[in-house]
Amino acid sequence: MPAQDETLKIDKNSNVLMVAGSETDANIYYASHFLAPDPFIYLQTKGTSYLLMNDLELDRARAQSDVAQVLPYSKYEAEAKTAGIESPGLSDVLSLFMLEQSVSQWIVPANFSLRLGDALRKQGHTLLTKDEPFFEARALKTETEVEAMREAQIAVEDALDSTLDLLRCAEIKDGLLVLEGETLTSQSVRRHLDLALMEKDCIAQHTIVSCGVDACDPHNEGSGPLRAHESIIFDIFPRSNKTRYHADMTRTVLKGKAPDALKRLYDTVLEGQLLGISQVKKGVNGREIHQNIMHCFEKKGYKTGLIDGRMQGFFHGTGHGIGLDIHEPPRISKADHVLQTGEVVTVEPGLYYPNIGAVRIEDMVLVEDTACRNLTTYPKFLELD
Predict the structure, then answer these.
(1) 3-state helix, strand, coil in the chain (%, to 5)
(2) By residue range, what is the domain housing residue 55?
């Protein structure tokens, strides 16, 4: 198996090998800026980046990628056959390239193929695996990346605004939300929201529109009729088709009249979220932010733990990094992480009690030297007017 070295850092002079499809692997897309569904080969050595591409994608990769050289896979395949390998495989092609570069030690991501790694090792090469973040620089967003995320966020806010108009126009009949004779459901409202995002060239998956007790399971996407006087959590995290960057926002709303206990729950979560945002800046440990929000909730009487056989209270992290992946380093949670200027993180505390309801509020913020810049501008309110 490849060796693990937890001290590895990647810079422009590192020897890097990745084999993946960039539609599903953000690291290879980050390195190459070439979008393809099928796996291809990325290599970096001696300060130069390369793609080895099949003939089908060769010209497109040369036109669209950011790498220094795009080389034909078939060239090395032919050389391997000339060398006596009747049916050369991926490891044979890579080995020829590595020998050509006179480099035998490479850094690969932790999800690198074990079979391919074993084959390369048998051919005399050393592979060092590196956990996430594979590219440390990915966590520190450029202004171009921040702008891409802000554009996706604008799409989220516009889509939610049009979706909440459905709820505003709905009538309350027998405790359910009814619009033009049809009962609004989590599924129908989510469909409207996702279509609104698609019109803005964003693709949403697993959008959460969850009502009442369902919302007390934070990852429950929601199903069935939407009910009046109960909190509805909207958690929206699409990817831009144009830039590949994500946005992420959560709002909790209610159609009708909020019970006093639910109002108090909402106000407490909002207080905790604003507290967290106020503490995000360079040099602050995310663990401290998380603990401060926990203490805020506990002082208000909201305990966290196993109650009646299920977790209740605030039982998830405060936030996560976001970019080409919806969840990427760093975390604001129980784990230690000192925030750095340029990181984009969410701040999304929540409280969940089946006998009261569920509330989660989430913004996306950019860490700066003395504070943070909130990339989310959508207002926060519980009751729909």
Answers:
(1) 35, 25, 40
(2) 3-138
